[in-house]
Amino acid sequence: MTTITHQGDDQIVPFVRRHGVAMLLAAAALAFLLPFGTVSCDNQTVRFTGTELASRNVQPAPGHEHDRREGLAGDVETDGSTYALMALVFAAFGVGSATWRARGGGFALAALGSLLFLLVSAGLSMSDVSIEIGYWLALATVIAAVVIRTRARRRIGKERRRLGVDAPRPGRRAWLRLHAPSWALGIGAVVVIMSLDALFQSGGS
Hints:
Blueprint: H1 2-31, E1 35-41, E2 44-49, H2 50-54, H3 72-101, H4 105-124, E3 128-131, H5 133-163, H6 172-204
Antiparallel strand pairs: 1-2, 1-3
Helix pairs in contact: 1-3, 1-5, 3-4, 3-6, 4-5
């Protein structure tokens, strides 16, 4: 019985190392379905999920449906929708990168930066802002993904130094083959963000 448990642990640890970043970034993307914030100002209150903010679909306060673009909902979208969309897309592309190439650290960092910019934007707002569970779950899982990826890179470096292995500098073609997929994913993520942001803005105007 003890041997079976030990073998199970030996299988779980590599699985978490291989897929942990992807699972955490997927959890961060799913957190956008939860309430992200509540904003109150001038007798108006709007509540929204992460996906509503990212898609510029924040519902206006009751009684202000006629001036959605000019009301509080429009101000919330102007201040935070692009950052929310960036975080969501970077998390989604990070899942693909981590699953396909066992990487995803760059996308996790980009998603973390976007979420922090969103928090700073909320802090600088003149409105009364309450950050809710969806945002905190997204932030926590993205931070965990960054930590796991960073620890993995350090562990590989320590193991190489312990074994006295010097990684040869790759040639230009090998270097391009190694990094080109990540660049392509990064460029693709930026294109998706710009396209969706423009689409959501035109759809809401």
